[in-house]
Design brief:
The chain has about 230 residues and is an alpha/beta fold. The protein has helices spanning about 10-20, 25-35, 85-95, 120-125, 150-160, 180-185, 215-225; strands at about 1-10, 40-45, 45-50, 50-60, 65-70, 75-80, 100-105, 105-110, 115, 140-145, 145, 170, 190-195, 210. α2 (about 25-35) packs across α3 and α5 (about 150-160) packs parallel to α6.
């Protein structure tokens, strides 16, 4: 039996950073592939089941190359000079070297990109534990809207299902945008498993998947610490 693993890269990188810590682009690429491979082995009804990997599909966007206004510095910052720009490009390059891994790249919307104050920092400000003058770069994160990623995920799920290329699809993602594609896959007889990386999902989502699974206890521990 064959399995395809589809990874929402933006979601994975955010959760992995919090749970596993900051690593080099090369080590992060190795970590991603190692994590995905764990999904090929599972215990079901007291029986060990092993799948052959069809392919890992990784969906993400190249880093922004424009200048974005930074409210802390009160000026536009060229994103090419940001450390994330170099890290992300090297990470994507490392992924291209991995066997049976396909990159599916979308684009980030420059007009919908901005620096946002972190939730924990907002709470500290509201409780007057810190002042505006105490804010640093660590209190902000860059948000941007991805374009084309969700569509590529949906198209690949449909293609894999209609062509009967796999018996199982594992989707590593954190939202419900996949529901229509998941319903299609299940109607075609595909075993559809969601990996939300230890995060909870709404009760009504369970009816659209065949299982919820994650493969590292550190993900759950990190989630408990932040809730």
């Amino acid at each position: 039996m064959k399995a395809a693993i589809l990874v929402d890269g933006g979601y994975y990188r955010k959760i992995a950073l919090a749970a596993f810590g900051q690593k080099s682009p090369k080590d992060t690429a190795i970590e991603l592939v190692t994590y995905c491979m764990r999904h090929l082995h599972e215990q079901r009804y007291k029986r060990k089941i092993h799948y052959e990997l069809y392919r890992i599909f990784y969906y993400d966007c190249p880093p922004l190359e424009n200048s974005i206004y930074n409210p802390l510095l009160d000026k536009a910052v060229n994103m090419k000079n940001h450390s994330h720009y170099k890290w992300m490009n090297e990470f994507l390059k490392e992924l291209t070297k991995k066997r049976k891994l396909a990159l599916r790249l979308g684009k980030q919307s420059y007009k919908e990109s901005n620096y946002t104050l972190k939730y924990d920092s907002v709470k500290k400000l509201m409780k007057k534990k810190i002042t505006v003058e105490d804010l640093t770069d660590q209190d902000f994160y860059l948000t941007s809207k991805q374009k084309g990623v969700d569509m590529k995920i949906g198209v690949d799920i449909a293609s894999l299902s209609y062509k009967k290329q796999v018996d199982k699809i594992i989707l590593i993602a954190g939202d419900s945008d996949f529901v229509p594609a998941s319903k299609l896959a299940r109607r075609e007889g595909i075993d559809f498993v969601l990996d939300s990386l230890g995060r909870g999902i709404s009760e009504d989502l369970f009816e659209h998947i065949d299982g919820l699974r994650f493969c590292d206890n550190r993900l759950k521990e990190n989630y408990k610490q932040r809730t």
